[in-house]
Structures are given as structure tokens and as C-alpha cells.
Amino acid sequence: MVAALDTAPAPAAPPASAAPLAPAAAPAPAGRKETDLWLLERLVPGAGVNNLSLTFDVDGPLDRAALGRALTLVVRKHDILRTVFRAGETELTREVLDPAAVTVEVEEFRPDPAPERVQAEVEAFVAAPFALDGSPLLRAALFTTAGGGSVVSVALHHLVFDAMSTVTLLGELISAYEAPDGYATLPAVAAAEEPEPGAASVEFWREQLRGYRAPEGGLWFGNPPSEAPDLAGGSTWYALSAEARAVVARLQRELRAPQAVILLAAYALLLSRHGAGQDIVVGSPVSVRPAGQEGAMGYHVNVLPLRVKVDPAKPFKRLVNRARSVFLEGLGHSGVPAESVLDEVRDSGGSGWRNSLCTHLFNYVPGGTSAEFAVAGHPARIRGVENGFSKFDLEFFFMPEGEDEHAETRIRAVYRTQAFGPQEVDLLLARYDALLVRLGEAAPTTAVGEIAAWGAADTAAVEAGHRSGLPQAYAASPAVARFSRYARGELSGVRAYVAGPDGQELPLLVRGELHLTGPDGEAVPTSELARWLPDGRIELLGRKDRRVTVQGTTVALDEIDALLLTHPDVKDAATVAVSAAGGGADPVLTSFVATTAAADLADRLLKQIRAELPGAAEPHQVVVTDALPEVAGLPDLEGLALRAERLLREEPAAPEAGGMDAEELADRLLLLWREYLKRDDLTVRSGFFASGGHSLLGIQLLQRVKRNMHLTVRVKLADLFAHPTPEKLATHIARTAA
After folding, report:
1. Up-side HSE of residue 222: CA atoms within 13 Å toward CB?
2. Range 559-578 average pLDDT
């Protein structure tokens, strides 16, 4: 912990609410990159989503007081480590504390010596949130391990640190610990200042990204995009096989391309095979430290939005050439943060809480992670620590130990748990390895569209499913009753497979269209969405024609039904989309559920939908009934649609919110929508983010709501993401006030 310096013995660590320290200079506005970190943090308040650390093991004891003295010296020397931030309602400011005003006190822990307990306590220490109230953004701890060893952990906020700062901080800390009297804190090292990006570089990225549109609904793999993120993350490690490493080394020679470019091209191809389309943007973090300051500490990373077009009819060589061109040209214009050109694709839909350009990252980190060093004569090594969060759906860190093809290349996969589960990420890693091997086996002229991205687990499960006859669907699927309709005669003679839009068979857990092939070999598309399960069965996910567009987002009605059916009190479910009673571009969703449960089930189901599906998928209402009307054993969707229209016409007057009814409030919110988004074509059902809004604009809008409307309830940024239209936000405010 960093506290006020005193010549008396060090006091006990102050509580988190202690008064911030005195600055050395007047506060200044934070930059765009820093502001974006803060906005992301506001989505998950009280969480360490932006926390990083320098953590290392030492095979011997360390002195806690000496470690604190060493860290104090390092912090005094480097302005960036004394930089603090203050968060207001709509802005973030930064200032630098006076060197003489800080000291670092090292917390001491003596955890259970079991390795898993030590790791858990270290991760908990790193993940604890920092307050952006002018307090220092660095703290340190010393853990004692079995056999007299030590673990040193310095936790830092991303606003003052990045992964590339680790080497410099480690070297400075060791020097100050081993020879404190010789460690000079003057002159202080000023924080590196990134130069303003040139107009040519800004125009380069605008031209690169012009016309890009992210695929609707995300990948065909994993979960759909969420507009209410918790940013919880997971991670795993994978070592590339010797066969894959040999292919990469050979392709480097034959295609005259760097290792990073070969790996990037294969990563883009993998994403394309999982629904990212043929026009893909992959984020790639790069250091943007000024020349001569390559070792500077701080937050000096930009994510390059590398746009790679995958033509399935062309060979891998063509894809490598494109990846090499965009990668090398992008490095030449790396000084432009992706956020600066995000407006070029702002109207592409998708979630508004994140940079919609870069949901999948490629991070090339040569040199490996296994190097050892020494601290006070004791062997030491870096310890990997996760903070439990991920800002991106998926990030592959490629960590080659060397240039030789026999040197190990490890992949650290970090993922958002709302987007993927551990099994899905394991499948992706195995498919990436298998894809590299097949690229090596293919002829140089083979089109990449002909090269399968299947791993061993995919092949084994699908073959097992075929051997057992026509695979059966999950009983929970609302479409299961329709399954046999497509097979005429004996089901055992029918082969089922799941295919993408190009007709290629898809591997495990990848969503596509179910096809049935009879004994005559003729394939029949069923218009049913489906996916293979790891146990060799097929899960039906609903009909392709049961998809509507709401607030610019594609919503699968059967997906809502499938989620409703997971609730133990729901016997049957059907969602319909009808036109709004008063007109409007977007349809209105109504979900009908058959149950014998308590009356409050509708509210519980709505909460479940808000937590697990995009905001656009939230029904206008959930109607509880004893049973659903049926036609030929299936829900009568036409009859339910007529009932939904009648319910909308008969809807009672909207509840009041602080003396104002929700309909009037929605109209007033609509005026703000139009003012802030500079669009006169918006309606009460227009999504804020789908119509061009972003987080900072959303905060400013909510501040205006707070000042002008005198509401009795507080409206947070997360509420705007969960209720992104004037109508939905007004209804939320009214319900909360009631």
C-alpha cells in the first residue's frame, strides 16, 4: 500500500477511505485511451477488471521492510508510478504526486503452503479493485511459501502499467532491493509522452476500416453477444504440436513471411470457419512507446484493428500475403488508438459497451516466459497471475520460446466466460493446431475453403453419432417435435449433419443448418438450426425463419424459448414478434410460458433473459398460462401472435415515475436521443448504441437526464446498456420508482 511518508516509524496501512495524497502539479484531463479504460470499469464497479501485476517466486526468504524500501525508491523515481486519477461524473483527470509524499508498505501474508492456496491468495490480492479517487494505483504484498520461499506481488492499475512494463519494473525493483544506497531517485524519470497521431495515420485507418460491418449475432460458436457484460474471464494454456511447429517453420521459408504473420493468417482462417465471415478484423496489441524510450513504464499499448479478408477460393499463400501487408502497414501507423476511428463502423450494430472492431485478439509475444533470474542470490521466476476478467471475447497469446522449429510455442488463451466455456476454448485450440497441420499437408494451390478446421475430438464425436444411427436431439429443444418430419420412412437409414452457409460440414458446438441425407444420397436442408454435441448427439436450436431484427440486432426467437425452457417451472414456451400497436420500425416480442408456478415467475424469467441474452432479446412481456394452444402437436404461433397483438392494444396506462408517466418520459428521453445522436429519424424503440452512441456519450446523456428530469431513482450506465431504448429505459425507471 502507498501511504504518506513520515520520518517516524511506518504507521499501519491506512484504510481504503484515507485522504488522497497531495499532487505535485495541477490535474489535467485524461486521454482518450485512459478514459476508455475508466468507462469499461464503470460497467463492473467494484471489480479489478483493469488490474495487472508483476508477480514472481523467489527460492528463499526476502525482508519485507527492505522490499518496501526498494519499492518506495522505485515509485519516487518514476512519475508514472506516482500518477493518480480522479473520476468525476463525466470526466477523468490525472495528476502526479510529489515524490517526497509517498512510501510503499508491503503487506505480508502467510497462506496455507499448498500451492493452490498460495495461487488463490495471490490472485485475490491482485484482483482487489483500485479507487480512482486520487489514491495511488500500486500496492505490494509478500507471501511466504513452503520451504522458506517467497512470492512477491506488485499489483498495478492498467492506467499506469502494461505487460510490456514488467521487465523494466522488475529490473528496477531488484536493483533497489539489492543496492538501495546506490539507487538514484533523482533526477526523476518523467512519464513517456506518446506523440499525437499524424493525419496520414488517422486517414490510413479510416480507409482500412471504411465499410466494415461486424457479423450479426457474433460467431456461430459460443454464446451470443451480451449487452449486460460482467467481463468475467477464464484462461488456459496449450502447447503447439511438433507437427504444427514444423509446418509454421516451413511456411515461413516457403512464403517468406515472419512467424507472426503465418500464425495471424491461420488465426483469421480459424475465426472465419467459426462464423466471423470473410471480412475479419483481428485486434493486435503493440507498444507505442516513443523512440529511445522502449523501456518506459506506463500504459503505452494500442490495439491495431487488422482487417484481413479471407477468400475461401484462394490458397493460403494469398491469405498470408494479405495478412503480411496489413500487419506490416499497420505497424507503420500504430500511433492511432482504435477508438479514434471507431466511428467509421459505429453503426454496424452489436454491443455498445466495447470496441466492436476488436472482439478477438492476436497477441504475439516472442521470447517465452520461462527465463529465470536471481533476487539477492536466490533463483527466481515470473509467476502467472490472472485477475479473473477479460475485456475481449477471445485473445490468443502466442509465446514462442525461440526461432527454431523445435523450440516450444505455447498459446495462452484468455476468454470472456459469457462468450465461451472452457470446453469450447479447448476445442478452438485443438482445431487451430489441426488446421496448421492440414495447411502443411495441402498442395500450394489448394483453396483454404477446402481445408477442414476439425480437431480429433470433433471427428471422433461425429463419427460416433453416425455409427449410432440418426442422432437424437435434446428433449429440451422447442424444435424437437419437428425433427422426424424431414425423414420419410425408416429413420435409421437417414444420415444427419450440420453445415455452414457454404455447405461445409461443421464440427462440435458450431451452429449451422441441419441437413438430412437419405439412402439415395440426396441431402435435404431442414431450415433448422442445430449443432453437434460432444456425446455424438445433435441439439436443435430452432428454425432459421424464426429470426427478427430488433434495435439493429438479430434475435432468434427459438433461442429465447430455449432459455425459458431451462427454468424448472416452465413446461412449454413460445415467443412471437408482432408490430407495435402505435407503429414503429421494430417488432415487439411477447413470450408465452406454460406453467403451474407462482405468479411472480414472469419477473424471474425476465431477469434470467436480461442476464443471459442481448438487450434486444428481452420480451416486452412474459405471459404466464396453464398451457399453450397447439396445432399438430406444436405451439400455435399464429394464434399466439393474434393474442399478443390484442394484449398490446389492451395494455393499461403506463405507470408513473415521479409524477410522470412512462410514456411521457419515453417521449422526453427520445428528444435527448435525437439531440445527442444528431439523428431525427429515431423512435422510442431506437437503441442508443445501435444508433451510433458510445459509452462516454451515454454517461453525458444520463447526466443530462439527472439534471433535467428530477428523477427519484438513480440511472446508471449499466441501466442504459440493459435498457437501450427510450421506451425500455422509461419503463425501467417507472418500475424502479414504483
Report:
1. 26
2. 90
